[in-house]
Amino acid sequence: VFPHSEMLYNLKGAIYNNLGYAASSGSSYFDRAIRSYKKAIKIKPNFAEAYNNMGVAAKNKGDLITAIKSYKCAIEIRTNYAEAYYNMGNVLNIRGHYDAAITKYKEALEIKPDYVEAYYNMGNAFNDMGDPSAAIKTYKKAIEIKPNYAEVYNNMGVIQKDTDSIEASIDSYRKAIEINSNYAEAHYNMGIALTGITFTKPKPELETVIHGLLEDRRRVRPVDISKAVISLIKFDPIIKNLISQLSNGDFEKPITQVIVDLSETKLLLKFISVCVLADLELESVIAKIRSEILLNNEKIPETPEIIKFQVALALHCFTNEYIYKQTLEEKQAYHSLLSLVNSLFLKGDQPTSNQILCLASYEALYKHDWSQQISLTSDLLNVTRRQILEPKEEKNLRSGIPSLEESRDKVSSNVQRQYEENPYPRWVSTGVRSNPRTISQVIKELRLRVNSEKIYKVDTPDILIAGCGTGQHSINVARRFKDSSVLAVDLSLRSLAYAKRKTQELKIDNVQYMQGNILNINKVDRKFDIIESVGVLHHMEKPISGWKALIDCLKPGGLIKVGLYSKLARKNIEIIRKEINQLGIKPTAENMTSFREDLIKSDCEHHQRVTQSTDFYSLSEFRDLLFHVQEHQFTIHEIKECLSDLNLGFCGFESNVLAEFKKIYPNSNDLYDLDKWSIYEEGNPQAFFGMYQFWCQKL
Description:
By secondary structure, the chain is an alpha/beta fold. The chain contains 33 helices and 7 strands. Strand 4, helix 26 (543-552) and strand 5 form a beta-alpha-beta unit. It is globular and about 90 Å long. It starts with 5 loop residues before the first helix and ends with a strand.
């Protein structure tokens, strides 16, 4: 009807552009959009809006040169076209021309002073060009115009964290999340910012945000933020009073009232249901309540408040693998209750929820023959899912996991046996990225220095996780690297089944699991762009042999991340390991919980120091920490020699002490100087208490 309507062609182009933007493969739509804009311009040569829109379609298609030309035409026609200046700034920013981009944003703002998006992207450009101070100032101007701009708060938080303004960073993420409770990236960043933080005063405004973090199984790895959470929990007046009372002997109120009071501490209940509780004072409170519930089981009513607490307690004890030591009185009471429950099921009766939950806080339900007869009431649903259904699913998954050749060396067989008995670690939630990064973006984030830029050209990285344990590592890597394909290998079939179940639960579809020994990894007959092996090589008989086997599977120019124990940081661990060997303590559950109790009561400094490790608070991790069948430790000088022997270039540490190191060694090249890192560690012997985690490149 209107074959010469430039407005309709412009509208048609906009529709095609939007279709292309929404589609997973939209290149043809963008081409159609551009053709429509060209028809509009042919009819009306001075159609500035069509030129601007054509630039947007070209940018979406990835044709940045055409986009810039289109924006220039729009500006020549309409010199006060703020959107065209802004759009050109965005393209220049993508191309890395930050100064030119900032100029265009400023020109857009001269025309349209309240152009909040221009301030936002100008802040991004300042940050990308390495001027965080200017970026923060620009973001704050955006917030003045639009106080509920969640993306600005998130980006500002990233800069504040990178510049060591952690408190400000946490506050920025909190505001972003309060504005948009579904903002996945802000939740993920908040988890990173809270890692290792201990609060020195109450933060009631943070508790709701952290509770939300813990609700979603994809937002945060709870153990990473445990120090922050525990410090906030201990400011709660109810909990402070209970800790004080217990230190003086016993609770002042009846156990029923204690539980009712604690049922109101939402953050505590949520946290213990998904994570170990790495604090001896809180542990003493929880263990005491568990004991009182068992010893007074017949007297405790089944109120909603008490059931709510018992559910959290049963989930917590399953997660820490029943590491709390039991008194003789508890053992007797447990067996009496177990006999009662057995007799009820034999008669066809159902025990009370209180009785089932009480048993579940002392031993996993799936270990009992009657577990399949439990009525799945709403009270018991979460506990039966975790303690019965999920272990059953893992057992079914084992048969579908392929295997390499069996381990033949004695050390590998012993290590395999340990992790079959105690899959490491048991976990509930982990933080996964909502927006995976390219290899170049990850390298930039980690401040790695690569020797060969060949790795930047890899768009679909093939990645090997050598020693994936129960899957946190493989899942995080799969969501860290964009368009990646991950093969995760481990000795322990039980660990792999746990990993596979969690991977399916989180809907991660780019990970394949395989049982096998690193020494046999050549049987896979694949070469990898990236290999990660953290906390594995130091448990081999000859770590260098395992490391070499991995390098043989790495492409030239490929990256490898390695995690090794520090000899300096683990001095006190080594002393305790020698004590265990001298005492002849075997790693049974009862022996380990008894020895752990001895460490808690000990006045020796090296015993008290080990209680500060989160690994001290669950059985599999405690065994891994002190009772491992094989362990080597390294110095930085030894690592340097290994890198030379293996023809690897050191790319940098992935560590939370980078900021502290830079205060002493501010030169940018110092980060890659292992001799300076060795000096730093001598002055800070606990810097690598977890382990050295570093990246190298195959030369």
